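About this split. The held-out portion is used to measure sequence recovery: a designer receives only the structure tokens and must propose an amino acid at every position. Recovery is the fraction of positions where the proposal matches the reference. Here is one held-out target exactly as it appears in the evaluation file.
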């Protein structure tokens, strides 16, 4: 078996017809003149082609860095969403389809969840919250809602401030009950 003969780039260009002998001789002459001038003067002649190639390489490196940064941010965002979803799924409080209606707003639209009376009171008093994950509403304890809120505030739809059941002694309206939510 014979090894295939490898041709230099110049020979390949000549063979394919993209270059001719005159151009080849001219390029070789210019190259000789440059090296002779560099040797005699000691000054390196700046090759514009090399300079532009280096600039292109630098631009490519910067583009690659930016793309890597964007990919990393996207991966971190995916991981954060998965983490939030897992936290909510592991700590959700069951809804009761035969329970009491709890109304709340999301994007200026009134939404209703049916929950047990005990859960409704917890939502009103701030001991529970509502999280929106994958277009579904889940009820979670307040501590979990705060943890999720730290990661992404947009996920928590309802988290009321914890109310104190003890009224101030000097409050003239302490004897009157204030409704926390109205049945619509």
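Reference sequence for scoring:
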């Amino acid at each position: 078996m014979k090894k295939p003969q490898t041709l230099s780039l110049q020979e390949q260009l000549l063979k394919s017809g993209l270059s001719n002998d005159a151009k080849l001789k001219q390029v070789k002459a210019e190259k000789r003149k440059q090296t002779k001038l560099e040797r005699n003067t000691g000054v390196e002649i700046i090759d514009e082609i090399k300079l532009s190639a280096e600039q292109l390489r630098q631009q490519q490196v910067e583009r690659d860095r930016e793309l890597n940064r964007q990919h990393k941010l996207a991966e971190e965002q995916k991981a954060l969403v998965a983490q939030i979803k897992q936290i909510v799924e592991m700590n959700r409080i069951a809804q009761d389809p035969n329970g009491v209606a709890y109304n709340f707003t999301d994007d200026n639209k009134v939404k209703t969840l049916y929950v047990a009376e005990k859960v409704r009171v917890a939502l009103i008093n701030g001991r529970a919250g509502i999280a929106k994950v994958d277009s579904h509403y889940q009820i979670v304890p307040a501590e979990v809602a705060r943890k999720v809120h730290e990661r992404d505030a947009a996920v928590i739809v309802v988290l009321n401030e914890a109310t104190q059941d003890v009224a101030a002694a000097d409050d003239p309206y302490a004897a009157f009950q204030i409704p926390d939510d109205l049945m619509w």
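Annotator remark: The two ends are 91 Å apart (CA to CA).
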